[in-house]
Amino acid sequence: MPSRLGGTIPLLLLLCAEAVPAAEPTAPGVTKDRIAFAQSGCFTGACGTTGLRYRAGIRAAFHERNLGGGVRGRILRLTSRDDAYDPETATANAARFAADRDVFAVVGGLGTPTALRMAPILRRAGVPFVGVLTGASFLRDRARFPNVVNLRTGYAEETRKLVAHMYGRLGARRFGVIYQDDAFGYSVLANYRDALKALGLPILAKASYSWHSHTIHGTLFVLEKADLDVVLMAATTSNVASAIDAARSFGHNFVFGMLSIVDLDRIAGRLERRFGPAVATRVLPDVRDASNALVKRFRSALAAFRAAAPEAEATADASSLEGYILGRFVIAVLERMPGAPDREAFLETALASGPFLIDGWEIGFADGGNAGSDYVRLVEFAAAMAEDGTRKAVSQ
Q: Going by DSSP bridges, is the β-strand pair 278-282/377-381 parallel, antiparallel, or unpaired?
């Protein structure tokens, strides 16, 4: 009997092992029925509106897809944590995400100072960091940050086209810069310097301000003796509005130059004096262009999300459109991946050289690069307001 059992038990164990299928291996944040994403963003304070709308766009794309059953039966989930544009808080959030086995990738960050602190932490943990709302050059170094996927045009390209337009079309030769005293301001200041150097021009005057104070008015006193044609801004929406109002009240007629990070509609709503002359870069289609296929679908998806989550800041603007593009891109990458999602395959698929077309909007990565777009359009504003008091674009 002992000898018989000794031969039978191992055979039974082998048969049982063969009868139970092996569990499908899953990456952090991935189960058989969902994929979990995390976000650290600015949802309170001066940039809170931008952050909330950016998040709403991502959620609208995820909601649209989840209504159809998700990606291969997996529902997409987004968990967001507020960092209020504070690098220390963003650092803590990134460390938490890196240690969390229920986070597949981090998406939709906002701001250069926060990204500067988050990116190294997520790189060391092998966590994809996708769609940060900044054009900072350091994130566009794939050798340094192989885990970062940039979808928007970089500040270097924006500043180059902005300066070239002012030089060639407006005949400007005397340039000054007002920049925010943080990683964002320093990054853009360097881009402006490079763009002007390519034309053989220096920065004639520059002044910095602290983004959380009201010191931007003082920068104008630093610049006014330089007899400038143009003041280039490396500043956020509320501070740009304050600078324009102050300059016009002092009687300055120089042209303001601003980047896509600035919300033009919110500036126009805050101004007490005229907007122009001014030129702004945009890196997305016009959100009011109803003939654009991407814009049309975005507005439909955002309306459906708003109905499902009426408490969300789901206003159709450039920030929410950018968030929607990010959400659609993530979905497109997941769809291209064979088998169960994992982080390495996600990054490899995302950064493949073949373009992603999202309702005609192209995101494509050159071999070895991690920047998905170089699209820039310019909006030029007249020196006077329109008769009805609204801003008036004279060229685009």
A: antiparallel
Burial 330-350 (b: 16+ CB within 10 A, else e): bbbbbeebeebbbbebbbebb
User: Region 222-239: what's the mean pLDDT?
Assistant: 91
Which residues, 6 or more positions from 210, have their beta carbon under 8 angstroms from its beta carbon?
A: 180, 181
What does the pLDDT look like over 292-302, one tens digit per residue?
999 999 999 99
pLDDT of residue 383: 61
Q: What token pair was written down for 36?
A: 């979990």
107 or 15: which carries more pLDDT confidence? 107
Do domains 34-153+289-363 and 155-282+377-395 share one topology? The answer is yes
Beta strands in 181-282 (DSSP E): 205-209, 230-234, 255-258, 278-282
Name the residue type at position 379.
V
Instruction: Output b/e per residue, 260-273; b: 16+ Cβ within 10 A.
Output: bbbbbebbbeebee
Of residues 280, 275, 263, 366, the one with CA closest to residue 319: 263
Boundaries of every domain in the chain: 34-153+289-363, 155-282+377-395
Residue 301's φ and ψ, nearest 5 degrees, are: -65, -40
Q: Is the pLDDT of residue 172 over 80?
A: yes
Cβ atoms within 10 A of the Cβ of 26, count? 14
For residue 249, name the pLDDT band (cuts at 50, 70, 90). Answer: confident
- Report the CATH fold assignment for 155-282+377-395: Rossmann fold (3.40.50)
320-329, 350-359, 375-384: range with lowest mean pLDDT: 375-384
Beta bridge partners, 41, equal: 82
- Cβ burial 65-97 (10 Å sphere, 16+ → b, else e): bbeeebbeebebbbebbbbbbbbebbbbbbeeb
Topology (CATH level 3) of domain 34-153+289-363: Rossmann fold (3.40.50)
What is the SS3 assignment for 270?
helix
Mean residue pLDDT of the chain comes to 88
